[in-house]
Amino acid sequence: MRDLLREVLEANLRIPKEGLATLTWGNVSGVDRGAGVYVIKPSGVPYARLTEEDLVTVEIETGRVVGSRLKPSVDSETHRLLYQAFPEIGGITHTHSTHAVAFAQAHRDIPVLGTTHADNFNGPIPVTRDLTPAECESEYERNTGLVILDVLDGDAASVPAALVASHGPFTWGANATKSLETAVVCEEVARMAIHTLALNPAAEPPEHLIRRHYTRKHGPDSYYGNV
Amino acid sequence: MRDLLREVLEANLRIPKEGLATLTWGNVSGVDRGAGVYVIKPSGVPYARLTEEDLVTVEIETGRVVGSRLKPSVDSETHRLLYQAFPEIGGITHTHSTHAVAFAQAHRDIPVLGTTHADNFNGPIPVTRDLTPAECESEYERNTGLVILDVLDGDAASVPAALVASHGPFTWGANATKSLETAVVCEEVARMAIHTLALNPAAEPPEHLIRRHYTRKHGPDSYYGNV
Amino acid sequence: MRDLLREVLEANLRIPKEGLATLTWGNVSGVDRGAGVYVIKPSGVPYARLTEEDLVTVEIETGRVVGSRLKPSVDSETHRLLYQAFPEIGGITHTHSTHAVAFAQAHRDIPVLGTTHADNFNGPIPVTRDLTPAECESEYERNTGLVILDVLDGDAASVPAALVASHGPFTWGANATKSLETAVVCEEVARMAIHTLALNPAAEPPEHLIRRHYTRKHGPDSYYGNV
Amino acid sequence: MRDLLREVLEANLRIPKEGLATLTWGNVSGVDRGAGVYVIKPSGVPYARLTEEDLVTVEIETGRVVGSRLKPSVDSETHRLLYQAFPEIGGITHTHSTHAVAFAQAHRDIPVLGTTHADNFNGPIPVTRDLTPAECESEYERNTGLVILDVLDGDAASVPAALVASHGPFTWGANATKSLETAVVCEEVARMAIHTLALNPAAEPPEHLIRRHYTRKHGPDSYYGNV
C-alpha cells in the first residue's frame, strides 16, 4: 500500500511535468485488487503541494471513501466503473492534454497514421458518442464511464485509451505509471496526427506495416525491450 | 497591504513563468477595497528585476498614484474602470498570450468547444467591438475598459474574461491570483480551440454536457474541490 | 570595449535561451562608433562554449578583422553594410527563428494584425525581393544587406526588422540587447500572425488603434515605461 | 572505445533533451571501423537510467552482439545495413520527432524552402516508398534499411537524412554527434516547412540562393566555421 501511494503520487506529478495539463487538471489512480480499493488524486488540490497523505482511497465495489480526509477527484466514479468492468486494469489516467482534447472536441477518432501510433495502440483511439441529457443529469461521472465501455465493446487491451466526446482522454494500463505513459503517447500521436492531416488529409499507412509494428512490441511474437 | 503586495508581485511573475507573454508584456493588479486602492505592475519594468517596492498603488476613485516612485502600467486606467464597474472583482490580469491574442486579432469569440472551457467559463469568451477613432484619440485606456463593459452587459461573473479586439485578453477574479489563473486557462482553451477548429470547423458540444460541467464547479450545486 | 564585449556575448547567449535558433545558428553584433568597429559572434562556434575572447572585432569601414583569432560570422558583411548605411544603429541580430522564417520562406510580409505588432513596429515587417543569380554569385552577404536596404527605402527606424526572402529575419536597434529583443518580438508577432490568419485570413485591425499603440510607446507623445 | 561509448551515450541523451522523442523512443549509434563494430542504445531502456554499460556493441559484418548483457535497439539491423552500404558513415540517429514524422506519415518529402534547409541538406529530405507485405513479414528492420538505400540511390552525402514512409526520420553523419545534430535540424526544417506551406502552399526559393548556401557550408568552396 505504501508503494501504491508513492507510485500514484509520482504518476500524478508527471501530469504537469509532461505538459499534459495546467493548474489542478487531470488525475491518476492505481489499484490494489487484493484490498479491493483504488487510490486517486483528491479534487482540486494543486500539484505543487500534493502529498501521499492527500491521496484518497476508494472501495471498488461500493465507492466508499476509506479513511481519507479529502474528497476524491470528481472523476472518481468514472475510474471506478472502468476498474469494475476490466479486472486486468491496474491504473487509469485522465488529462486535458491539448491535442488529444482537440480530437475529442472535434468528435474525431485519432486515426492510425504511422508506426508511433501502432507501436502503442492496435487501432484508432476512439471518441465516444455524446452523453444524452438524462446521462448528464444524474450519475454523470458513472455515465461517462459507460460511454467509454460502449466504445470499447469489451476490449480494453487492444487500445488502452478513449476520448470522451467534447471532453478529453482517459488512458489505462497494468498500473498507474503505465496509464500515465499511455497518456503521454496519446497526446503525442494526437499532435503528430494534426500536423499529418494538415499536410495530407488522406494520409494512410499500409496495414501490414501497422500490423508488424504492433506485434513487434505486443503479444507472443514481441521482440522489443529488455526484461 | 503587505500580503497584497506579495500576492500581486507573485501573480505578475507567473506571467512569464506560465508562458503568457515575453519581455515586459502583461500586467496583474489586485485590490484593497477597504483602502480604496489597487496595486499594479509599473510600466515597462522587466520581470527579472521586479520587486514589491516597484509596484504602484492607485486610488480606485481618482486614479491618483499613492506614494509610489514609478508610473503604473499604461493599462492602469482599464483596470481602474473594471474595478469601478464591478465591486466583486478583486484582481485583474492582462496578457498578450499567443493564442488568445490570435482570437482577438481574428475578431472571433473563443467558442465553447468542450468541458475544459465549460469548467471555467459559462459561455464563449467574447471579443469586443473595435474602438472608434474618437475612443482611440482621447482617454484610450479608459475607453478600452468601456468596450469591455459593453460586451459584458453587466455580468462579470459568468465569463471572467474578454478579448479586446485586435489587442488581447483581460481576465479577472476574486483576487490577483485567480485572475492570473483565469488568464492561463483562457490561453489554453484558445490553443485547444485553434486545433479543434482545424480538425472540425463545425465542432460543437452538446449544451447539456456544458451545463453539467459548469455547474459541477460553480454555483450552489457545485461538488468540485476540497475546501 | 569591455562592456561592449560583455553585452554582445550576453545578447548572443539569449538566442538559444529565447528559443530563437538551434545549434550554432544566429548571431548578434554591437558597435563602438568611436572606435569605428563592431563586435560579432565567430562563425560556427556552439553557444555552450562561446566566450568574450571568441568574439570578433571588425572595422566598419574596411571589414578588416582586428586582433581576433577567429573568423567572424559568415553574415558579418551583411551586418557591416547595415552599420554603414544607418549610423543610428548600434546592434544587429540575425536568427533563423521558426515562425519568422516561415514568413520569409512564404515570401510574405508579417502584416500588422494587432497591438502587439504596433507596440513595436510602425508597419508590416517587410520581406525583401529574391537575390538575383549575379547577387548570389559574388559578394553574396553584402548583397543580402543591399536587398534589405532596398526594402527599407532609407528608413531603418519605423520598422527595425526585415525578412530576407527564403532566408530569415534581421533586426536592429540602439544596441545589441535591443536588437536581440526586437528579434524576440519579431518571432512572437510572426507566431501570433500565423494563428490569426488561420482563424481569419482577412483579419485587419483599425488603423487608428494601430496608430495609438505605436505612438503610445514611440516618439514625442510616448507615455510608456519608467526611465 | 571508451570515447565511443561516451559519445554514443551523450548523443542518445540529447534525444529527449532536444525534444526529439518521448519516453524510450529513438536511438543513436556510433561506429568503430577499425574494430568492425558499432555501439547502439539497448531496446526499451528509459533515458533517465541509461549508462555506458547498457550500450550494446554489434559486429557490422555479422550482426552478432559482442559482450553485452542487453539486446540492442529493435532498429539495430537498419543501422547495420546503412553502415555496410556507406563506409563513410560514422553515426546514425533514428527519432520519432513530431514534425519530421508528420511528413513521413503524410508521404511527403520535406521540400527545400529556404536557406536553413540548404545550409544542411543538398536537396529535399526524401520519403521512402512503403514497404511491401513481404518486406514487413520477414527481416523487417533490414528491409527498412533497403528502402532507405533505394531512395538515396547511392548518395548518402548530399542529404544525410531520409524519412521512412509512415514511420519517421533516420539521419547520419561522420559520427554519432553529427548524426544527432542532423536529426535536430531535420525536425526544425520540418517544423518551418509546415508553417511555410500553411502561409504559401506554392512557396519556392530561387535555385541560385539554395546553391550558394549549400556550397557556403559544404565542399571545396566552403567558408563557414572556425576549425
From TrEMBL, chains A, B, C, D:
EC number of the protein: 5.1.3.4
Enzyme class of the recorded protein, top EC level: isomerase
Molecular function (Gene Ontology), one example: aldehyde-lyase activity
Positions of the Class II aldolase/adducin N-terminal domain: 6-194
Reactions performed catalytically: L-ribulose 5-phosphate = D-xylulose 5-phosphate
Pfam family, one: Aldolase_II
Superkingdom assignment: Bacteria
One GO BP: pentose catabolic process
Key word Aminoacyl-tRNA synthetase present: no
Signal peptide: none
Entry keyword set: Carbohydrate metabolism, Isomerase, Metal-binding, Zinc
Cofactor needs: Zn(2+)
GO cellular component: cytosol
Family: Belongs to the aldolase class II family. AraD/FucA subfamily.
Protein name as annotated: L-ribulose-5-phosphate 4-epimerase
Species per Swiss-Prot/TrEMBL record: Paractinoplanes tereljensis
